[in-house]
Design a protein that fits this description.
heterodimer; A: 294 residues; mainly alpha; MetI-like fold; 73% helix; globular; B: 321 residues; two-stranded antiparallel sheet; 1% strand; coiled coil (chain A); MetI-like_sf (chain A)
């Protein structure tokens, strides 16, 4: 069904306004990061750099170790985490999608329960730290996100609707084992679904700050998001303490400028903004097939 | 005699079949094993920890070693003023997010689906979904670009365009309910509409054509065809949303206000309170945190089951389980 001409025009105007509201904050941030620091002091932030300057980017890459390290941590966690979790989730949900698998009822229930009930953050934190000793390890930023009930449900439905039973049967007749059937026959058909989960998990790992905020103290294990968070918190504290400290002005001199902060923010979100449009079509397709109630 | 041997044979046969069956089931079971282990480690083990709410937590003694403490953690919690504030905040914000979110999500999906130009519709959709993929840390920086006291965009507009006085946003609680609600929908509205949009694209076009022949207007078609078809999916979303009524997004309430103490009256929700008490450490703070966690888990679970029961009673097709 399509809108009549007049309502179509009104809708377009509303959406155009929403478009601007959505994009404006990001453009503003980019503009700040590209504005000369003196221009910011004189005129404040504006949507177009009054005096164009790449000084902020040069500043943050002047001592690149911290940022490059944080990038390395983020990339390692994202690649390992997204790969492992996509594999684990796909395997689990594929088994659940098989009607002839005896454990499917119990194992569906097993993950479904975790969606309804959990032990709470305190218990989770204590188990992770005092039982698994995850504090200050890179694994603390990977292991807790490996399973996800929501994705299991989406993928199970996806396998059920897109992989014909006859293909599995024919594989069995040819004498292929379950693992070979999965890797050689099922995965090629299920690429859109698997790619959706992989993309979501990539973004989840890339954007994560919750696990570092809980488990990471060592600066060399900071990921990008956590680095941003720590930086903001330090500036906040410096500003608050400035009144009471004798050498405050000296310390404040070393604080990154507004532009440098925003530049770091752009550096952290850049890859997502660039990659996102290419994947968007893919994941909508995957979600659409996977989320039909089944 | 003969009968006996026959049954013996079938028993053996059955045994062989079941052995084969186990053998054929084994690979599928092995596929689920990593998932079983991870879920056990990070979801089931902490479930035992729910008893922490009734213990005097001592990190060195662990979950089971700590001494029982009765309901003291809860009585401390409810003696403080914190309990009222955070429960009020959590419920009010999340209720707004669930109800307004469903309305906005459905409205946006319908709007996008009836745009005449499909290409612009796709572009709008792409842009509206995008903020979902930004982390709350990034969002907190974007918000700071507007609300910074000295240089922020909003203060600049207030002083230069309207000639008003700059507002020190991060110490003025009265604005923050609006700011947080706006930020939430700015970030999640587009993503929330995907599921409705895909449901709309599954509706049989013939229904609309038949309605047109009967002379139905656009609004009537939306009211009598689109909305009823979306009922099930809206119900499922609401059931799932109700589970977070006592929880919800931690980042929105912690990162976006920059953890500003002056705002805590309107930004302290249950997850924020729990986090702050965990980082504060010490048996007292951990006790308060675990009592709060307990309330969050138990009410969350009860609410989902309750919401599902209500929906099932009204319309059995729309329930989640």
């Amino acid at each position: 069904m399509l809108a009549e001409k007049k309502s179509n025009l009104i809708l377009n105007i509303i959406f155009a306004i929403m478009f601007v509201v959505t994009v404006f904050p990001i453009l503003l941030t980019i503009s700040i990061s590209l504005t000369d620091s003196r221009a910011i002091m004189d005129h404040g932030y504006s949507i177009w750099p009054e005096t164009f300057s790449t000084e902020a980017y040069r500043y943050i890459f002047k001592t690149p170790e911290t940022i490059l390290r944080a990038y390395a941590v983020t990339i390692f966690v994202t690649v390992v985490g997204a790969t492992l979790s996509t594999l684990i989730i796909s395997l689990y949900s594929y088994a659940l999608s098989r009607k002839d698998f005896k454990g499917r009822k119990v194992l569906t229930f097993y993950v479904f329960i975790t969606m309804l009930f959990n032990g709470g953050t305190v218990a989770w934190y204590i188990v992770c730290t005092s039982l698994y000793h995850l504090s200050n390890t890179v694994w603390s930023m990977i292991l807790p996100y490996l399973m996800n009930t929501w994705y299991i449900i989406i993928m199970r439905t996806f396998f059920q609707t897109s992989v014909p039973v006859s293909i599995i049967e024919s594989g069995k007749l040819d004498g292929a084992g379950e693992w070979r059937i999965f890797f050689e026959l099922v995965i090629p058909i299920a690429v859109p679904g698997i790619a959706t989960i992989a993309l979501f998990q990539t973004l989840n790992y890339w954007n994560d700050w919750w696990l570092p905020i809980m488990f990471i103290v060592k600066p060399e294990l900071y990921n990008l998001q956590f680095l941003l968070q720590r930086m903001m918190q330090n500036i906040q504290q410096l500003n608050e303490n400035a009144k009471y400290m004798a050498n405050a002005s000296e310390q404040l001199m070393n604080v990154p400028t507004d532009g440098a902060r925003m530049a770091l923010c752009i550096v952290a979100m850049g890859p997502i903004l660039i990659v996102y449009p290419f994947f968007q079509k893919y994941f909508i397709q995957g979600l659409t097939i996977g989320s039909i109630k089944g | 005699m003969r009968v006996k041997s026959k049954t013996k044979q079938t028993v053996i046969k059955n045994k062989r079949i079941s052995a084969e069956k186990i053998k054929s089931q084994l690979p599928l079971f092995m596929m689920t094993l990593p998932g079983i282990i991870i879920t056990f480690m990070f979801a089931y083990m902490p479930m035992f920890g729910i008893i922490l709410a009734f213990k005097k937590i001592n990190l060195r003694q662990g979950i089971f070693g700590s001494d029982w403490y009765g309901l003291k953690n809860f009585s401390y919690l409810f003696k403080s003023n914190d309990a009222y504030i955070m429960i009020r905040n959590t419920i009010c914000y999340n209720l707004t997010f669930i109800v307004v979110g469903a309305v906005l999500g459905v409205a946006l999906a319908i709007g996008l689906s009836i745009l005449r130009n499909k290409r612009t519709s796709k572009v709008f959709q792409t842009v509206f979904i995008m903020p979902h993929f930004l982390s709350m840390i990034i969002v907190s920086y974007l918000v700071l670009a507007f609300l910074n006291m000295e240089n922020g965009f909003l203060n600049r507009v207030i002083t230069m365009v309207f000639g008003g006085d700059p507002v020190n946003w991060y110490v003025e609680p009265k604005w923050w309910p609006f700011i947080l609600i706006f930020v939430n929908f700015w970030k999640e509205m587009g993503f929330g509409s995907i599921i409705y949009l895909s449901a709309i694209s599954g509706i049989d076009m013939q229904l609309y054509e038949a309605a047109s022949i009967d002379g139905a207007s656009g609004w009537q078609k939306i009211w009598h065809i689109t909305l009823p078809m979306l009922k099930t999916i809206v119900c499922i979303q609401i059931i799932l949303g109700v589970g977070s009524l006592f929880g919800g997004d931690f980042g929105l309430f912690y990162q976006v206000p920059m953890d500003s103490g002056a705002l805590s009256e309107v930004t302290t929700t249950i997850p924020v309170y729990v986090y702050k008490n965990i980082t504060a450490g010490g048996p007292r703070a951990l006790g308060l945190a675990s009592a709060t966690s307990f309330i969050q888990s138990v009410t969350g679970c009860a609410l989902v089951i309750f919401a599902n029961a209500v929906v099932r009673k009204l319309d059995s097709d729309s329930s989640l389980f």
